Amino acid sequence: LEAVQELRTALQVAHEEEQFIVFLQPQVDLETGALTGVEALLRWQHPERGLLAPGAFIAELENTPIAADVGNRVLAQACRDAMRLRQRHGRDIRIGVNLFTAQLRRGDLVASVERVLAETDLPAHCLELEITETIILDDEELIIPQLRALRALGVGIAFDDYGTGWASLSQLKRYPLTRLKIDRSFVSDVTEDEDDAAIVRAVLALGSSLGLDVIAEGIEIPAQADFLREHQCLTGQGYLYGRPMPVEVLLGKAMQNE
Ligand code: G
Ligand code: G
Ligand code: MN
Ligand code: NA
User: Hey, what's the signal peptide range on this chain (predicted)?
Assistant: First the structure.
């Protein structure tokens, strides 16, 4: 219990001293390899313990009152980074931002998104908010109207980690989604496990029939990308294309490719 209290205090300090930073992971066109977008992933630059991935702290962060503020700060940083990438590449690069439940519960998400888009000049269609099942299974009457308002702005809504949970097809229909993200647990064995291959094919068919884009996560080897391409999956993300990295590194790569 003391350890939990200590972590909470440390998270509060981390927020105040701006130790939370944003890494970006590439998302690519599986046919051409071109960069189409990035996902913003939170990191904690801890003064003693070094760079920490969310696994070490995100569950606790979600239970603290600062979660929504941290989320809003990630959103703003991500949109600024996306603008820099857009300028460097000379075309739209989409940015995916993971939402905390607290951002939707507080009720000011739509206003925050509008403000950040106005401040950064990022076109709304370049922003995609990622929601997980934890959010889908929360209070629908609170959440769906906010997601509709975001869609009306032109912002995309992706269902993250799709296939791992209990969300039903009727829930899928009620939510104003634009994209499904196939969870990496299905992609990792897609070339060896017939069940995983069947699930991936089913999600691609579902996306196609509901008019949703589909992106596969966790692509690590070319054989996985081959399978996905052969089954008309257009977009992918994973270590094969790049680990989460600072925006400066990604901007440097864009220079090299020019
Ligand atoms: O980067 P990594 O694979 O360690 O991320 C682990 C988990 O943390 C992922 O499930 C991801 O969705 C979540 N996560 C990463 N960054 C954010 C963020 O900014 N906000 C929220 N809500 N979740 C995040
Ligand atoms: O939001 P989500 O939970 O989907 O976050 C993606 C997580 O997956 C991040 O923590 C990221 O570091 C991780 N990740 C991204 N690509 C790969 C990959 O190719 N392999 C593995 N094992 N993890 C990945
Ligand atoms: Mn995600
Ligand atoms: Na995911």
Answer: none
The reply to whether ligand 2 has any atom less than 6 angstroms from the CB of 217 is yes
- The answer to whether the pTM exceeds 0.95 is yes
- Side chain identity, residue 98: N
Which residue's structure tokens are 């294309």?
Answer: 241
- Between CA 135 and CA 99 the distance in angstroms is 9
**Helix (H), strand (E) at residue 103:** helix 101-106
Pair 232, 208: CB distance under 8 Å: yes
Tell me which residue has tokens 């590439």.
26
The H-or-E segment that residue 216 falls in is strand 213-216
Amino acid at position 220, single letter:
E
| ipTM (interface predicted TM) | 0.95
- Note the pLDDT of residue 258: 61
Average pLDDT over residues 197-225: 97
- Single out the residue of 39, 23, 24, 37 nearest to residue 94, CA to CA: 37
> Which tokens is 170 given?
């009727």
Number of H helices, E strands in the chain: 12, 9
Q: pLDDT for 128-169, tens place per residue?
A: 999 998 888 889 999 999 999 999 999 999 999 998 888 888
**Mean of per-residue pLDDT scores for the chain:** 96
> Counting ligands in written order, which one lies closest to the CA of residue 54?
1
Tokens representing residue 161 in the block: 């980690």
Q: What gap in Å lies between CA 39 and CA 151, rounded to an integer?
A: 19
In terms of Cα–Cα distance, which of 224, 163, 218 is closest to 192? Answer: 224
